[in-house]
Specification:
Layout lengths: L6 E11 L24 E14 L2 E2 L4 E8 L8 E8 L4 H12 L4 H6 L3 E10 L1 E6 L2 E6 L3 E7 L10 E2 L10 E6 L4 E4 L2 E4 L4 E10 L1
Parallel strand pairs: 5-6
Antiparallel strand pairs: 1-2, 1-14, 2-3, 2-4, 4-5, 7-8, 8-9, 9-11, 9-12, 10-11, 11-14, 12-13
Length: about 210
Amino acid sequence: MTTQRPWNLRGEYFENCNCDFLCPCLFSPGGPLTAPPTEGYCDVVLAVHIDRGSYGSDVLDGLNGVIVAHAEGPMGAGNWKVALYLDSRASGAQREGLQSILSGAAGGPMGALAPLIGEVLGVKSASISFTKEGRRRSVSIADVMQMGVEGVPSMNPDSEVWAASGHPFNPERLALATGVANSTFADYGMRWDNSGKNGHYAAIEWSA
């Protein structure tokens, strides 16, 4: 549902795709989203945790959401197949907010990517667990996904490598990461294993 309600959120996000490290979709001499994925297609999970947020008068604090996308070639060519998983703890109004934000209907960072979506496979309510611990981020949905990434250590082994990639989720500070073991997804007739593949994470602060 398209909405004009004001909204904002602060929290965390991470992604894990099937590209080898580093993903040419973001880091390519030809520019972002122009190069073919290393496997010729892209399978990516983007998980979002909201520490504090609101959608109109509805509070979104503590809720989680996951975006799953498949693209047959360069991401910039569009025709993505996308599915959404929304926190089952959300009320009807909160669910409307999460869906509007994560689909891009409400503008913001996902609104910049929404024109690339060719097909929405579905929207499901699910019990979503999002974990942040040191350089690790993970998300799990029973019988659907167990995905996680670990930040690439810098010369200082206690900190990760960060890049100002221009990524719409956090243009100035994006961690480089790789998928942990058993980073898998299975739904909508698709089965992925992104273990050891490219990942990123960042703090997020969105509004529209």
